[in-house]
């Protein structure tokens, strides 16, 4: 059951954490786990885990706990990670290159449909085997190709206009690494990866 409209965002944000814990259990060859053990592994209370999973039907069995493979597959399915997605990377600098080389995204079924930059010195080159295309051609590319997700790795002052082009091109979600809050994207899902936010909040605890 896909229930994302009614499921609190906080629950959806915890699901990748469950997946990571279950991946670890699978690697260790553990096939079943109680909610108490899962709670120890993951750091959420057993009741929180039950409540979270009850949004999608539960999956646990009284007196047995959870079947690790089954729960892993169910969470993958709930997140929509049981099929593949096409992405474009806009901005082929340090971060764009690192993301293109980040093999974990391919294992989850993300295919790079195209990579784009505005620097004439980079256009025509390649990153990880993908030819760097002129960002001026991004709108045409999106009109012709099916692309699900746009990854923004341009400087902050270029990010809004890239986001506008992606939205107009019918993209279904944006993973934004530029340190700005993108505006006027309606209900288009945007996930911000503001790495420096994490460091800044860490410093609060360093000084606590
Ligand atoms: P970078 O300067 O190495 O690369 C940026 C690339 O974007 C360049 O290739 C540039 O030619 C291209 N570009 C500029 N304007 C463009 C446009 N309008 N359309 C298409 N391409 C354009 O920068 P970086 O270090 O890769 O960082 C990229 C973004 O990610 C920045 O906003 C940065 O603040 C953010 N970020 C970087 C890091 C990091 O560790 N490098 C971490 C977090 C966030």
Folded structure, characterized:
It contains nine helices and nine strands. The chain has helices at 9-27, 35-42, 46-54, 68-79, 94-100, 104-107, 138-144, 156-168, 195-206; strands at 32-33, 66-67, 85-90, 110-117, 126-127, 130-134, 149-152, 173-176, 190-192. Helix 1 packs antiparallel against helix 4 (68-79) and helix 2 packs across helix 3 (46-54). The chain starts with 8 loop residues before the first helix and ends with a helix. The mean pLDDT is 92. It binds nicotinamide-adenine-dinucleotide. Residues 90-96, 116-119, 122, 135, 153-156, 158, 162, 177-179, 195 line the site of nicotinamide-adenine-dinucleotide (NAD).
Portion of residues within helices? 40-55%
Q: What average pLDDT do the residues reach?
A: 92
Q: DSSP helix count?
A: 9
Kindly report how far apart the N and C termini lie. Answer: 43 Å
Number of strands: 9
Please describe the biggest sheet, giving its number of strands, its sense, and whether it closes into a barrel. Answer: 7 strands, mixed
Would you identify the regions where 5 or more consecutive residues have pLDDT less than 50?
none
Task: Note the quaternary state here.
Answer: single chain
Widest β-sheet, arrangement of strands:
5-6-4-3-7-8-9
Shape: elongated
Draw up the topology in text:
Layout: H1 9-27, E1 32-33, H2 35-42, H3 46-54, E2 66-67, H4 68-79, E3 85-90, H5 94-100, H6 104-107, E4 110-117, E5 126-127, E6 130-134, H7 138-144, E7 149-152, H8 156-168, E8 173-176, E9 190-192, H9 195-206
Parallel strand pairs: 3-4, 3-7, 4-6, 7-8, 8-9
Antiparallel strand pairs: 1-2, 5-6
Helix pairs in contact: 1-4, 2-3
Bound molecules: nicotinamide-adenine-dinucleotide.
The site of nicotinamide-adenine-dinucleotide has 23 residues, from helix 5, strand 4 and helix 8.
